[in-house]
Amino acid sequence: MTTGSASPAPGSFLELRDLRIHFPTEDGLVKSVDGLSFKLDRGKTLGIVGESGSGKSVTSLGILGLHKGGRAKISGEIWLDGEELVGASQDHVRTLRGKKMAMIFQDPLSSMHPFYTVGKQIIEAYRIHHNVSKAVARKHAIDMLGRVGIPQPDRRVDSYPHEFSGGMRQRAMIAMALSCDPELLIADEPTTALDVTVQAQILDLMLDLQREFNSALIVITHDLGVVAELSDEILVMYGGKCIEYGTADDIFYRPEHPYTWGLLGSMPRLDREPTERLMPIKGTPPSLINVPSGCAFNPRCPYRERTGGKATTEVPQLLETEGGHLVRCHLPREERRAIWENEIKPMMEVQ
Amino acid sequence: MSHRADKGGEGVNAPEALLSVQGLQKHFPVTKGLLKRQIGAVRAVDGVSFDVRQGETLGLVGESGCGKSTTGRLVTRLMEPTAGKIFFEGHDITHMSQSKIRPLRRDIQMIFQDPYSSLNPRHTVGAIVGAPFRIQGVQTEQGTKKAVQEILELVGLNPEHYNRYPHEFSGGQRQRIGIARTLALKPKMIIADEPVSALDVSIQAQVVNLLEDLQNELGLTYVIVAHDLSVIRHISDRVAVMYLGKIVELADRKSLYDSPMHPYTNALLSAVPIPDPARRKDRERIRLQGDVPSPLNPPPACRFHTRCWKAQVICKTEEPPLAELAPGHQVACHFPENVEQATAPAAAKVAQNVEEALHPKKPVV
Ligand SMILES: Nc1ncnc2c1ncn2[C@@H]1O[C@H](COP(=O)(O)OP(=O)(O)OP(=O)(O)O)[C@@H](O)[C@H]1O
Ligand SMILES: Nc1ncnc2c1ncn2[C@@H]1O[C@H](COP(=O)(O)OP(=O)(O)O)[C@@H](O)[C@H]1O
Ligand code: SF4
Ligand code: SF4
Ligand SMILES: [Mg+2]
Ligand SMILES: [Mg+2]
């Protein structure tokens, strides 16, 4: 696909249209991302939540063009600042990484080279996009390390990644990702491996830096607390698809999808009186090779009997319920709202 | 608890303590060179005391490396302590010999974090869960199978899965297999080290509910080690907070979460992300500076003083003892929070402490 044949460029800074990323494997076709669409503006944060294997990381690597040249089958459109990237060449997308878009990974060691100092890696990344001397780039690297809260950055710039603690490595990786002021920053489980006090420091840092650079931020996590702290909009993923999308208020105060209810009910919360019992989702997440027919959530859904047999035969559409809030479920809107108000919400509040 | 021998001594606590740990220490020597000259020690656990009462759940929280797992391993005698004493049902088991300890190994069981590596991939579920019966040699093969299938059912697994291998199961199911194996020994006490942290949220809730059901049905006593403060609050009756090898606060769940006294506990609680978007704007956190110091060279006196916003000179020179400042509420701090008002709601309390943290007296570093 070329830019010319695609539909017109969108108004949003980033827009995904019906993105599909499938992997042919010996066991069958893995449909890791299966028709994902969303928009994101500069200065805004999108949270993507879902359990492991729901397609979150494949999505983020896809946006960065890191599946190109591999065995993945990619279709759909990714528009970044007026440019379509699914059809663009691998070389071209590479020139956009770093400056236009950058990523923070869950495991900082995997994205930092063990044999080079932290400083050298930031300097190299910076000089790819900026025609400056080594000395200038080094000064910039020290600046960035200081900004992300590394103590004595002029000394630590010459440390190797393994000489840093987990929290410092995560900060150094953020410094590296931000060294060229990327306009789109994707953070994939940025704090999952960290202790809460360090996590709090990193979350604050990401918010501060985003405000300063007005970049678009995608935060991917399985932690509903983290998305609630950061996101303007939230996308809930299940089995490679978006099953609910809305503002943070939509998702936390008026969720309409049974899976979202399940996630909320599974989570013990410190901000409420403790409940007697958690309300887990039964069963396990689906395999992306044999996604259940109809609604992918149907084997685990307590309400599947209420959809007149459609749950197992027809894939529900992602439809607007109100004001940009999208839900993928066959239950009628009024019924979903009634279940949330009368059954789920009261159970979560007191017991 | 039929045969409690009253081993007396001033340390032995209230009669209902199933497990009593006193002054427990584990120092790992750090050696250098061919001659393995000792150049220091990691003070992983450095003087920990607590009781666990029959039928209760004690939660053990703290950040990575603070000594939670080591404490669990010491209590289950998987590791020899450097110093201190462990009493189980009133018996001193600290240095009990291997032969004498065998029956006890059944009584205190451990569940591990990683449901993948803790199961032998070459053994069927039947072999894994049934091993304890076979070792005890008390049952026929048919009897073993029946007993194993009963346990599988108890932990929510399909008894038909008797002949399957671990890799055929999901993470949550593997954790259930681990729990089933543990239960086969009919333990009195289970030490669970991060039993749900490797699991997805929805599966985490299933396993938490399972642990609670088993406790109610079988009268089990738990020590649950976790770093997730929300899970610990949900599951525990009492909670101990560890920092750098020491317990800094120990209280029943309600007082610990509603009126935390140790500055570190306050900082931990205020750092937990709250899944409520409306709270984000008015919320201020206690921002701790830096990382946890190395246990190789822990700060002297109060180990938290390098990161504490309330630290005074005395905090650097005199170690605060773990003292009972309210009924059942122990804390090790010279300048504790919430001492007078041990009942008001949590949010207000943490907010007030955050207020202080944001307008601190000069920290002494
Ligand atoms: N066998 C060992 N030899 C040397 N040091 C060890 C050994 N086992 C643990 N330690 C050290 O002891 C300290 C406490 O470790 P422990 O595993 O108990 O921490 P933890 O609280 O369980 O942490 P986490 O939350 O990361 O599991 C750490 O500094 C660790 O590096
Ligand atoms: N290179 C690959 N080849 C085949 N399958 C893959 C590949 N990368 C990811 N997958 C599969 O795609 C699904 C989604 O993975 P991922 O996006 O990593 O999940 P998560 O939501 O946990 O980040 C999983 O089933 C995973 O096994
Ligand atoms: S479509 Fe049916 S099975 Fe799927 S979430 Fe809605 S009610 Fe449940
Ligand atoms: S003893 Fe001092 S340094 Fe330690 S926690 Fe209390 S106030 Fe802070
Ligand atoms: Mg992932
Ligand atoms: Mg541990």
TrEMBL record, chain A:
Its Gene Ontology cellular component terms are: plasma membrane
InterPro entries attached to this UniProt entry: AAA+_ATPase, ABC_Ni/Peptide_Import, ABC_transporter-like_ATP-bd, ABC_transporter-like_CS, Oligopep_ABC_C, P-loop_NTPase
Q: Which CDD domains match?
A: ABC_NikE_OppD_transporters
Q: What membrane topology is given?
A: Peripheral membrane protein
Specify the ABC transporter domain's residue ranges: 14-264
Determine if Membrane is one of this entry's keywords: yes
What's an example Gene Ontology biological process for this entry? peptide transport
Gene Ontology molecular function, alphabetical: ATP binding; ATP hydrolysis activity
Spell out the subcellular localization from the entry.
Cell membrane
Q: What is the official name of this protein in its record? A: Dipeptide/oligopeptide/nickel ABC transporter ATP-binding protein
Task: State the organism of origin.
Answer: Planobispora longispora
UniProtKB/TrEMBL annotation, chain B:
- Spell out the InterPro entries in the cross-references: AAA+_ATPase, ABC_transp_ATP-bind, ABC_transporter-like_ATP-bd, ABC_transporter-like_CS, Oligopep_ABC_C, P-loop_NTPase
Domain named ABC transporter: which ranges?
19-269
Annotated keywords: ATP-binding, Nucleotide-binding, Transport
- Keyword check for ATP-binding: yes
A GO MF term: ATP binding
Which biological processes are named by the entry's GO terms? peptide transport; transmembrane transport
- Tell me the PANTHER family matching this sequence: D,D-DIPEPTIDE TRANSPORT ATP-BINDING PROTEIN DDPF-RELATED, TRANSPORT ATP-BINDING PROTEIN
What family is it from? Belongs to the ABC transporter superfamily.
Q: What is this protein called?
A: ABC transporter domain-containing protein
Q: Which organism is it from?
A: Planobispora longispora
User: Taxonomic lineage of this organism?
Assistant: Bacteria, Bacillati, Actinomycetota, Actinomycetes, Streptosporangiales
